[in-house]
Records
---
Amino acid sequence: MTTEQIASAPVASPACATCSMANLANLRKLGINMEDADYVVALAGNPNVGKSTVFNAVTGLRQHTGNWPGKTVGRAEGGFEYAGRRYKIVDLPGTYSLLSTSLDEEIARNFILFGRPDVTVVVVDATRLERNLNLVLQVLEITDRAVVCVNLIDEARRLGLSVDERRLARDLGVPVVLTAARQGEGIPLLLQMIDEVATGKTVCRPRRIQSEPPALKRAVAALTEKIQAAYPGLPNARWVALRLLDGDERMVQALRSGELLELAGGVAPTAGAGSEGRAPVLQTEAAR
Ligand SMILES: Nc1nc2c(ncn2[C@@H]2O[C@H](COP(=O)(O)OP(=O)(O)O)[C@@H](O)[C@H]2O)c(=O)[nH]1
Ligand SMILES: [Mg+2]
């Protein structure tokens, strides 16, 4: 895979492509200290796809484990260097989706949504590609900066399956790397792709749903505007709006309890905040 395949169109704003995306304040709240790192990478994937094996292959002994702040869910965090740049990599809980039906999913989703990692690597199982791509598409709705790591490629080969990574990269609009992490195969290329996306050398153009019905488009636009007004600085307001329209109870709760406010960087809601720091405008919208 080459840079040119993905970065075919000019970048609208070069600054956005090359500067670190990481939301430092939010990352700190999410328990990540970025003092000794230039970029942060999140590792996402379904359970049992070899995420921890990729994590170990990338970090070696430079890792430590703990819990997510305020949660009993374990977290592994590590570091690596590439071309003189210092990377921090976080192994997210294994999830089938980011729709927040479990604590694990919520942690993974909040990290990608609000921590805004410079690169999100989605590890998928080469022998179960179709099922795994569900999570990839969800991640690509939230972030432009992703690399798909098609792991267990040795198992796929053994089963007579082959994966056309160029085609997949073109269809998804992000780099795709084939790996057999247990053997270390593909890991150097994975690191190179992470670095290219982090530094903006490769600019992703992720595949997104294009054909939103007009009514949905209008509803999303209206709600996004309200969310942005009430929570200035909240990343991914559009995605939050989509989840609210989908009736995502956890998202409604996060808005009501002020959890989202905290993740937005602690900026007070501006749209007539209630006494508990709530945003009444959003409450009524969300309750419908
Ligand atoms: N054959 C093969 N096995 C792998 C590979 N990567 C991971 N595994 C194995 O798959 C199992 C699950 O891996 P793990 O890293 O714990 O998956 P996680 O749940 O996604 O973190 C372990 O037994 C690994 O040794 C690979 O590339 N090829
Ligand atoms: Mg694991």
Note: The beta strands are 39-45, 63-67, 74-82, 85-91, 119-125, 146-151, 176-178.
---
Amino acid sequence: MAFSWFRKKKSAARANQDSAKAESGADKKSENGSGAKNGNDPKQAAKNAAGAVGAALKPTGDQKLSVIKLVDTLIQQSYRLRASDIHLDPEENLLKVRLRIDGVMHDSFVLPKSIHQEVITRIKVMASMRTDEHQTAQDGRIRVTIEEKNFDIRVSIAPTYYGENCVMRLLSGGDQAFALKDLGFSDENLEKIERAITKPYGMILATGPTGSGKTTTLYTILQKLNTKEVVIITVEDPIEYSIGGLEQIQVNERTGLTFAKGLRFILRQDPDIIMVGEIRDDETAGIAVNAALTGHLMLSTLHTNDSTTAIPRLLDMGVEPFLITSTLNVAIGQRLVRQLCGSCKKKKKLTKAEIDNLKRFVSEKIIAANEGADFYAAVGCNECSGGYKSRIGIHEVFEIDSGIRELIVQKASGDKIREAAIKSGMITMLEDGFKKAVAGVTTLEEVLRVFYE
Ligand SMILES: [Zn+2]
């Protein structure tokens, strides 16, 4: 009875459907965003998550579980499960808890509606938010220590039809020092990036959709550039990791401190290296390009599908073609794929049907290059989540050569520029993904998922 309010929520039927759909390699994200759906076992991952949290939340002794303890345990267990986000979604009769692990949402379990308000109030107290405010969205932060590691949780609470929801983002990267190689960059791509960041000025852009690891790539480059001899200032929204030795400024729309304003402010202090969290408007684009032209190394992100689309995007934002060709050192395109678990992955050959299916998504050239290659299948064991463990990037690194410079000046289409880049030897993200699939780092399903989900 004590356990009755804690029900595991799972639809076996839907999970099966998901893995069946995944065979096609191009299933759409299901409406509630749940489930890993790429040929591995999404049920297993959800079960692992729910099982661990469930065991921890199980009432003991007097059967009375305080909400304080519940929230603490939820955060601790989510951290141990390597979740990046915790979503609390109220529905009519329950409070659904979902975890994002390695980029994929899992329906983890449900809490009774009766404690919904108490849970939200407890989180508000922890995040220093107003507990008497229920009608507007609020943002806050919680500082936690788990296993002797300090990190922040970014909290956002907003009113919904069934009451306030909550999203907690675990920013646990603060004390991690990555090397670019650990992020999955190939030797060839590393060489291009090295070239780009050793130039005294110019732009380095990381491109990709939300959640593709752009910011981590830029932070890693910044850590590499971060020496006593240089001044680095950033303007970010939000500040995801704080790095010693850097001056980091938080964008604040309410006080009018936008990316553009922040950038102008930074330039007056004449740093050597600048990072702007994102270029998303004409004004920021204009200032950023000018800064790159006048002796600063400028790092930023662009929300585009791939590296070469950075060019038409900058043109759209009113940047003159000659300014692009004279400032863009390199544009990196990327996605994050889940990494196969070394303990349970299994070698496999593609069937004829799978190869035929691939032809719908991938060029003949890539298929021919991988003919007869061994790939791997995700299996699942108790060391991993459905055959996967953590994530790694797949990348493309776009450099401008004389032919491409000519195309940019002519304001050629994105497709033309991409074609020319590939002709000049750029390994595309998809090709990089195939290489990692053949190397047993990830699966082909996973590579296709990140492009066609
Ligand atoms: Zn495993």
Note: Residues 366 and 431 are 7 Å apart (CA to CA).
